[in-house]
Amino acid sequence: MKKIYFLLIVLLCSSFIVNGQTYLTEDFSADQMPPTGWTIDGYSNQWSTSGSDEAGGIPPEAKFTWTNGTGVSRLISPEVDLTGVSDVNISFNHFLDNYSSGPKIGVATRSGGGDWHIVWEVNTTSNIGPEERIIAVTNDDVGQSDFQFCIYLDGNFYNLDYWYIDNIELYTPYPLDAKLTVINTPWYLYGVDEVTGRVKNRGINDITSLAVSWSVDSGDTSTTSFEGLSLATGDSYYFTCEDLFDFPVGDHMLDVWISGVNDGIDDDTDNNLLMKTIHVASYAGSRTPLFEEFTSSTCAPCAGFNNQFVPWCDDHSDQITLVKYQMSWPAPGDPYYTEEGGVRRAYYGVSFVPDLYGNGSQVGTTIGAVNTFFNEAVQLPGFASAVGSHTFNGTEITATVNLVPYANYTDFKLYVVVFEYLTTGNVGNNGETEFEHVMMKMIPDAEGVTLNLSDREPYSLTQTVDLAGTNVEEWDDLGVAFIFQDYGSKEVFQSGYSLEDAVYNTDASLSFLFVDGSSVPGFDPAVYDYYVELPEGSTEIPDVLAIAADENATVVVLPADELRDNVTTIDVFAEDHSAHNRYTVTFTVATGMNDIENEQVKVFPNPTSGMLYIESNKTANASLYSANGSRVGEYSVSGTQQIDLSELPNGIYFIKIKTEDSVTTKKISLTK
Fold this sequence. Notes:
This protein is 7% helix and 49% strand.
């Protein structure tokens, strides 16, 4: 279900009255077409709901699909009583996926079931949007008790691909109304990034200044002011806040809101706030771009595109992952069409060939569009890495994919695809005589495997399937690709090829560990936890450098900070992406005996067999940590505090005691 988040601002004044009102909204969250109360006039079968967000809203959304026909199709609203109303706005999000100078699109109104009166119309010659469109309506239909509007297409429906529509609204505008429409800060990021977004003027008056505020996890607020603006009704402003998003690895809730408009508060505060979960990755490697082509040997345009696309792919074979799905149309369809290809087609909503997807998003079937996508895609960071291996036993194939996530992932999918490098047995009528990277089977099937992964916790999938009865021509000409994909957004976070009979190194050890350029005393690759005492008065977190024994291993270093309580974590992942070791370096700051006596903070006995006592003449908070840096206890101290450690396993622990003006850290040995 879609969610709308409201920012409640209480205005302690009544010096003016605003009269904005919303009469109708439709966001297609009921997932039915037409929605309740709506009707369709003409080509009703081309209208559907789609689990996509192409229009810029939240799934589901409305979708009009091309067909071989010419005419008019209208999605018509229910009747709305606008008695006494003099002007209204109609707004909606939309994205037109153009094919070749498609039909006109527009909005029209009527009353009493009479003739339609156009209030907005566009001749489509290229893609439009995604955008929010606001249309002011002041014609004679406004003010009637039986007002209706429609969103329509008029022309040749073969010349468009799709029209996506979402978040339709009929309302009387407020005098001053700024709407926060999107937060553009990435869902997944590594390191530091900007807080960016877009504000749209939905009111009558121009917007001349804005204040945008944000906070993370309900923490401190950062505010940036933007002056000298001139935003008329329907105009958008793309903002970048001054302060940077700089937060530790993990998941964080980012709240962004409009905190001021024209040196005051606007008239509608319900649309001033958006919230977004930001996943801060622990590591960023490279990401291999994935191309998925839907094609057919019976499709003449496919041959024209492939004449250029195939050589391009050959030239970039070591930089991309490529899979092709042969489709069942135009009639009689490609002989190598499979139901699994049909599932993949339905997932993307493919309704024509050739159709190309790069990292899960549609790419134009021109080499110019392919190059544009590729040049941008190779710059994207990889927040997961993977390797694959496979073996054959007769007609059976066993494939293994090992994956390391560098962030938390929910409802992602891992797809494994068996393909044939070159086929010739599926020649149709389009002139192509051979076909590359044709999908033969998906492991275990086209639905893939659903994954919920935690940062730096490796995952392994091994599956065996029998390829007997598939379209395989040459058993020594098969390859395997893997795809790690966000099922909801369709974005592909990683892809690659498996290697036949591959043997990967399993060494996940370090060969060197340095703190501020000096080797850690007593370093041993088989010892995983280290304790380094810093000079008294130290305030800077030391730099830690870790070097793996195997140059093909991956090392991820999470520096210590106050939130991680002075523990630097080093994860080492072997070349096989399965073997994994975690090293820790715990830092403590030396405290002189005189200082301890002056503070009168004592911890005893040490070692302890279970009972520990903390004595302090000041109110303090104590935190107990295991040797790997995990917090295992929190205590308030006033006078003498007894702590029972008998339920904990034997080992080394650290207790940090904080008063208002000092911090004391002690290493505790528990031996029961």
